[in-house]
């Protein structure tokens, strides 16, 4: 019985490590505008940057961020550069007030947002630059770019 308990404990530890490895704090983001603050971005599943996403599928995104100026509204747009064309990513929530309460108070008001993003089966495999722009009443607050890789379904 003691051996079974030790085996279960080891299995539990290894499973927790595997799950932990599939979450990645994203550090390699370029600022492309805005005076808002992004404190943390965690993507799951992702183990290395750039993240590799299998299609079809979905990813979970957790963000801790705040606007520089107060705003009654908060919108998010996401796009990808594909063959020198900027294409909107479907399925990314665009009304941030549905993910957190509005109004946003501006500087110092850090919000935690979590959402899922579908990886559509028609996305072509390759590495792409994604742009995420959060806007408030007075325009762009946050813009970040990062690279991701789409791999084919197996």
TrEMBL record:
Signal peptide positions (record): 1-16
Keyword DNA-binding applies: no
Alphabetic keyword roster: Signal
Gene3D superfamilies: 2.60.40.770
Domain MD-2-related lipid-recognition: start-end pairs: 29-148
InterPro entries reported in the protein's UniProt record: Ig_E-set (IPR014756), ML_dom (IPR003172)
TM helices/strands, residue ranges: none
Protein name: MD-2-related lipid-recognition domain-containing protein
Organism per entry: Tropilaelaps mercedesae
């Amino acid at each position: 019985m003691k051996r079974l308990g030790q085996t279960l404990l080891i299995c539990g530890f290894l499973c927790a490590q595997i799950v932990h490895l599939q979450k990645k704090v994203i550090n390699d983001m370029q600022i492309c505008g805005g005076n808002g603050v992004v404190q943390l971005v965690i993507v799951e599943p992702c183990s290395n940057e750039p993240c590799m996403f299998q299609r079809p599928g979905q990813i979970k995104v957790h963000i801790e961020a705040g606007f520089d100026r107060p705003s009654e509204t908060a919108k998010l747009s996401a796009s990808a550069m594909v063959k020198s064309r900027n294409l909107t990513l479907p399925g990314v929530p665009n009304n941030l007030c549905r993910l957190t309460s509005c109004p946003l108070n501006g500087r110092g008001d850090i919000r935690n947002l979590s959402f899922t993003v579908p990886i559509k089966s028609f996305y072509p495999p390759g590495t792409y630059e994604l742009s995420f722009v959060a806007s408030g009443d007075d325009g762009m607050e946050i813009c970040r770019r990062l690279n991701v890789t789409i791999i084919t379904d197996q």
